[in-house]
Amino acid sequence: MRIIVISDSHGNKQALDSVFLMNSDADLFLHLGDGERDVDSFLTENPDYASRVIHVAGNCDFNSLSNDFEIIPACGHKIFLTHGHRYNVKSGLEIIKKTAANLGCDIILYGHTHVRYNKYEDGFYIMNPGSAGNPHDGKKRSFGTLNVLPNGVVMNIADI
Questions:
Q1: Most buried residue, 52, 65, 68, 111, by most Cβ within 10 Å?
Q2: Residue 100 has what pLDDT?
Q3: How far is 98 from 65, CA to CA, in rounded Å?
Q4: Nearest-CA neighbor of 134 among 7, 5, 4?
Q5: What pLDDT does 9 receive?
Q6: Which conformational region is residue 151 in: left (phi greater than 0), alpha (psi within -120 to 50 degrees), or beta?
Q7: Which of 114, 112, 108 is nearest to 142 (CA)?
Q8: 126 near 98, Cβ under 8 Å?
Q9: Bridge partner list, 69
Q10: What angle do CA 41, 19, 34 make, to 5 degrees?
């Protein structure tokens, strides 16, 4: 299963559009929050993507009706995706790891910090794809790819 992961587009719909359109063959597109209007606008223009796009609410997605987190089964793995602000990710990953463990998830996807993070640690595959709108790590705008197979997980972060 090939999954595109994007977060924190913050109004940069052009970045979101280019990532989604250049990866049109992906099985899923996950937006980790702070860009709900960008996702809604993309789906209005590209309704054929609707069944493959999942969005969670970020702290700047005001009046959002989206969930704070989602759990997605994928080839024998379980993905926990969230924006991260409710799990204090700017101060560390212990809370989000504990939550994911309690939910039986082994893949954690989060945003909020605008800083790329891509590691396997403590039995979890963990990725923050950085920001598609305004990175805070001195790097270019970015997105992630997640390939989930029954025999393994491969994660990568790429520049937009």
A1: 111
A2: 98
A3: 25
A4: 7
A5: 98
A6: alpha
A7: 114
A8: no
A9: 82
A10: 55
Please give the angle made by the CA atoms of 68, 74 and 28, to the nearest 5 degrees: 65
- What does the longest C-alpha to C-alpha distance in the chain come to? 41
- Distance from C-alpha of 36 to C-alpha of 46, rounded to nearest angstrom: 15
Looking at residue 93, what is its pLDDT? 98
- A 10 A CB-CB count for 79 gives 26
- Encoded tokens for 141: 């705008």
Give pLDDT tens digits for 73-122: 999 999 999 999 999 999 999 999 999 999 999 999 999 999 999 999 99
Query: What contacts 85, CB < 8 A, 6 or more positions away?
Result: 33, 58, 59, 112
Classify strands 53-55 and 28-31 as parallel, antiparallel or unpaired.
Answer: parallel
* CB-facing half-sphere around the CA of 123: CA atoms within 13 A: 10
Task: Give the whole-angstrom CA distance, residue 52 versus residue 24.
Answer: 10
Q: Which of 159, 152, 154 is nearest to 135 (CA)?
A: 159
